[in-house]
Amino acid sequence: MLEMDGVYRQYAELICRFLFSLCRDAETARELTQETFYQAVRSAGRYDGSCKVSTWLCQIARHLWYQELERRSRRPGAGLPETLADPSPGPEEAFESSQDKVRLMRAVLELDETAREVVLLRITGAFSFREIGEVFQKNENWARVTFYRAKQKLMKGWPS
Question: Which PANTHER family match (predicted)?
Answer without folding.
Answer: RNA POLYMERASE ECF-TYPE SIGMA FACTO, RNA POLYMERASE SIGMA FACTOR HI_1459-RELATED
